[in-house]
Amino acid sequence: MQMVITRIVLALRNLYHWLVAQAAFGFLTVLKILPADAAINFADRLMRWIGPKTKRHRLMQVNLRNAFPEKSDAERDEIALASWGHMGRLVAEYVFLDRLFDFDPDKPGEGRVEVSGVEQFLDLRDNPRPFIVFTGHTANFELLPVAGAAFGLFVTVLFRPPNNPYVAEKVFNFRRKRMGDLVPSHAGSSFALARQLEKGGGVGVLVDQKFGKGVETQFFGQPVRTNPLLAKLARQFECEVYPARCIRLPGNRYRLEIESRIELPRNAKGQIDVNAASQLLNDKVEAWVRSYPEQWLWYHDRWNIKHTI
């Protein structure tokens, strides 16, 4: 009897995932009919309407209050609303990702995308060596590996698949065609990234994800656990580490920035200090978020406080 109940529960869960996935795919299909600007602007307005009505909005408000205690309620509400709009834009931009990246090095500033740090892209491409590029959930972070591939610089990207298996499969296939090698985040992902670095290649990592078993650090003055994977890989392979981010500009335009190599802190033995390096990554992402707070995904439970509200 217990086995039958379990099968029914699993079947119902699978049906729910399938229905949600079909609704999402249908929405994206409708967006694809529209011109890119119209679709992106529509998704922005739609999420500004839907977002504040969801349970996640409460989490977003708490996160913003903890991160920006000096701001007024009106200021934080404005950031929250804009953040929902950027979430809508991110979804819509998925449909047009191939067309959005139109950077032409011979005509900089004329397309939707401008790139800062082209010399870094070209140096990493023309002088192969192991390296790590890290970013955060700012603006359309998906454009960064697309840009790398456009420059002939293919990076193995660590990503966290969506919980919905139907959506996860669709997203994985979509990303793989446009971004190169992908490594789903799971127990063996660190070995896959290590093999890539061992071969002299590059990897890309999002460093602002929730990670319950991470090292103790601070983010916006609040205690948070951070995945030590990047710091451990950098220590093991003594590879170069580069920050990179995307910034949304007015008029549905984007600026991609790859910054100069950063030096990770070391301990008395000369080894990279994993805890201090993890804190440095948090500090970098925090600086990015402070400069464009509305472009970060505040509905993430980065501080693991969802169970308290």
UniProtKB/TrEMBL annotation:
* One GO CC annotation: plasma membrane
Show the CDD domains listed in the entry.
Answer: LPLAT_LABLAT-like
Cross-referenced InterPro entries, in alphabetical order? LipA_acyltrans
Alphabetical list of Pfam families matching this protein = Lip_A_acyltrans
Record field: transmembrane: none
Q: Name one GO biological process term.
A: glycolipid biosynthetic process
A Gene Ontology MF term for this entry? acyltransferase activity
Q: What is its main location?
A: membrane
Q: Where in the cell is it found?
A: Cell inner membrane
Keywords carried by this UniProt record: Acyltransferase, Cell inner membrane, Cell membrane, Membrane, Transferase
Query: NCBIfam families given for it?
Result: PRK06553.1
Q: What is this protein called?
A: Lipid A biosynthesis lauroyl acyltransferase
Recorded source organism is Peteryoungia ipomoeae
